[in-house]
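Translate structure to sequence.
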C-alpha cells in the first residue's frame, strides 16, 4: 500500500501545485505536500539520511530552476518582487522535495539501468514542465529552456540513481 501511496501521492502533490498555484489556492500545495512528505519521513529509519537525500535533491532542483530563470529561459508565476523573479518559487521547492521522496518507489526498477534512467530523465523532466506550462504556472519557457531542462534532468536522474544505490535501503 505504501508503494502506491508514494507513486500516486506524488502525482497528487504535482496536481496540487499546478492547479493550486494557477487557481490562486496557495495553501493546497502546502497541505498536500506536507502530508505526503510527513508520510515519507515517518517510514524512514534512520531519518538523517532521508533528510540529507531530500535536501540534496531540493538543492539540485533549486539550482536548475533558478539558473533557468536567471538565464531568462523560464519565467515562473512568481510571488517574488522584480529583482528576484528568476529565483525558483517556493511551490517548486515543495515539488522537488516530493519528487525526491517518491524517487525510491518511482525509480527502483531503474536502479540497474542507469543509461535508461538518464534518458527517461531527459525526456520526462521537460514534459513535466510543459504540462505545468499548460496549467499556467510558468509564464513562459523557450526552446533553450527545454533543452537545458533535458540536460539538467538527465544529470539529476544520474545523481538520484547514484544516491539510491548508496542508500541501499529496501522499498518501504
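Result:
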Amino acid at each position: 500500500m505504501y508503494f502506491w501511496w508514494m507513486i500516486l501521492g506524488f502525482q497528487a502533490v504535482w496536481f496540487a501545485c499546478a492547479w493550486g498555484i494557477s487557481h490562486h489556492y496557495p495553501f493546497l500545495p502546502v497541505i498536500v505536500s506536507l502530508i505526503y512528505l510527513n508520510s515519507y519521513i515517518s517510514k524512514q529509519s534512520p531519518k538523517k539520511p532521508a533528510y540529507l537525500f531530500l535536501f540534496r535533491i531540493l538543492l539540485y532542483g533549486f539550482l536548475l530552476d533558478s539558473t533557468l530563470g536567471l538565464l531568462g529561459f523560464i519565467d515562473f508565476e512568481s510571488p517574488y518582487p522584480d529583482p528576484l523573479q528568476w529565483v525558483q518559487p517556493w511551490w517548486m521547492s515543495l515539488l522537488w522535495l516530493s519528487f525526491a521522496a517518491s524517487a525510491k518507489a518511482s525509480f527502483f526498477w531503474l536502479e540497474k539501468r542507469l543509461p535508461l534512467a538518464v534518458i527517461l530523465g531527459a525526456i520526462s523532466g521537460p514534459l513535466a514542465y510543459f504540462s505545468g506550462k499548460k496549467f499556467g504556472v510558468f509564464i513562459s519557457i523557450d526552446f533553450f529552456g527545454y533543452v537545458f531542462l533535458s540536460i539538467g534532468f538527465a544529470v539529476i536522474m544520474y545523481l538520484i540513481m547514484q544516491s539510491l544505490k548508496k542508500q541501499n535501503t529496501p522499498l518501504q
